[in-house]
Specification:
Strand content: 25-35%
Largest sheet: 8 strands, antiparallel
Strand order of the largest sheet: 31-45-33-41-42-43-44-32
Oligomer: single chain
Number of domains: 5
Helix content: 25-40%
Amino acid sequence: MDYLQYINPVGRVEGLMSGIDTGAIVEALGNVQRAPITQLESRKQDQQQLLATYQSVTAALLNIKNCAAQLQAPDTYSQRAVDNTHPALLTASAAAGTAVGNYEIVISQLAAAHKISSAAIADTDSALGYDGDIVINGQTIRVQDTFTLNDIASAINEANAGVTASLLNVSDSEHYLVLTADRSGAANAIDLVEANSGNILQNLGLVAAAPTTKHALTQGMASDYFADDSTPVGTLLGLSGSLSGTIQVNGTDVDIDLSTDSLNTIADRITAQVTGVTATVTSDTVEGETRYRLEIVGDSAAPTLTDDGNVLEALGLQTKPVANELQAAQDAMFSLDGFNMTRPTNSVDDVVEGLSLELQQADPSTTVTVTVSADYGDVVTELQGLVGKFNELMDVLNSGLSYDADTGQGGELIGESTIMLLQMDLVQQVINPVATLGALDESTSLSELGLSLDENGKLQLDTAALQSALSENPERVQRLLGTTAWADNSEVEYVASTSATRESGPAGYEVNITQAATRATATSASLPDGITHSETLTFYGTYQFILQPGMSLAQAAEALNAFFENSSLSLSAAVIGDQLVIRHNLYGSNYDIEITSSLDDGAGGSDLGGALAGEAAVYTGRDVAGTINGEPATGNGQWLTGDEGNENTAGLMLRITSTTTGDKGAVYISKGMGTRLMHYIEGATGDVNGSLTIAQQAIADRIDDIDTEIQKLNDRVDAYIQQLQREFVAMEQTIARMQNLGTWLTQQIQILTNMNKQNQ
């Protein structure tokens, strides 16, 4: 038998030749070599447990930080509780900071939404045969002769005209179209316009037949407002067909065709054809936009108008009153502390700042007393939460740093200097006195808030003492727990600080300004006669505005401001002397104004833009510049921030509203316990230089080093085992060859012996 058959497929020899269990020998020798790996894996497990403990400490610190952050919020200390003597008549709520006090309210009328109905209609599913346009609250609605009552209701609802149309089915043969205004209040009464010659609204029974003047003037009347004065009125209304007729003004016929006539055309025609009557087009700013209307005024009295084909009604000079009013549009009427007021809704939040009222029921004979009082429940809750999270962390630290002398066993954090310093520092943040800044030389302990430390470094809170302190002086409690900062110059405003910002002490930090912040500003040429040339101004290469000849500077500024608002441009226009000035709304070099004009400079235009027509001019602002406490600071608009690395003022952000340079007084900063904890934790857990972050990275590096060493040892052991296997294979192969040779020699001797016997 060939000795190779005794070698298994993976090259191991199982001792079939030698009878030795070579596999067991190799395994045993390999285990001896692996002993250091086992020790390394045990060390790795210890480091992983230590890292997990550090991570749990970090998580606990962040929980404390979150609680501390709530103690910084001014709203935490200015919450309000509200009570009232008659909750059935009104409900009330108060935002943080609402003035504490009593308010006496009498409700005489609730606001109501306008509601009207049609006449009775026999069928909701049959075509009514009405054809033409109706206008509801300025929205034109096309009615077709195939429309049923259901279709008309649907068309009204789809128009989003500020009303909701519904059907009231009294019986199988009695149905009503009901229109309800979406908003309450007298100003939101439903406005119905018959913009057709077929009297659709009248036939539906929504309006009466006799028209009245809609917008009365002294000795005259005015139309509705329209978007411009030169476009045909029918186009402005969005009418689907033509609407024309021969109206009468003081008995004189005047032909009007709304499909072709603009407001200017109609005004000129009336003035030219009717003696003793003047018609003009005037403009007003309505909701920030320029709007136009036709005004007809008699020389001695208001002229009489006779409509034809509802032309005057479409113009808004006349209107037909509602025929069936189910609920009048009305405002809420009430008094507060004796002052009579009206509001369009029953939700009132603009009488006392921060106080919201919901009027529920009118009762002129009953006075409702609403009491707003301070509510410090959030302060107590947040401080209790901080104490709980602080003590949970102390339990973890105390356990990890403990040592049992009897067993000789210590916690996993023993020897961790980072943790030991952390525990001591946390205690210091709590027990150190706080400079209250109420008096700059005064310091106080947190014990007056009912806070104390026990022998294990855990916080104890006397809630009764805290509530007493809040009742006596809530501002003092806020100073002891949060950040107190103020400046002795009204042009300097404290904004924020970081963990790197140190408390100022009673001397404060001096502020010196070397450059005031400015806004980008574009100033026109002198324009004593207003706008005399048509000029197109293009802003940022996209937004175009046309200055029209005849505009005064005030009109130009007003129109520009409306344009800026509609274009969402953060710009504003004003008139200074005889110049038009355009400014960016934000300060600093990051906000510029780019203007291109259609006119060359000196061509009679505004001279805003480049020297040549089509050439852009860019106007930029400046950032504030200066120092805080003599240390460098960086400006961004009006914001001045102490540079990173400053000894005292790093991260201190101020808003400088001054328009001049020089010394601007001092800013004072005091950090209460909550702020100190929050800033300390921010520093300890920082992504780069935080002490806990550095310690955890060191542990992670040690784990990586152990993994590397384990891998090296594993590779070494694998190589050692492979070498043993090769040597045992060689041994078994040698034994196999010797056995084969012995067998062969035995066979040869036997052959020779047999041959010798034959020869004899």
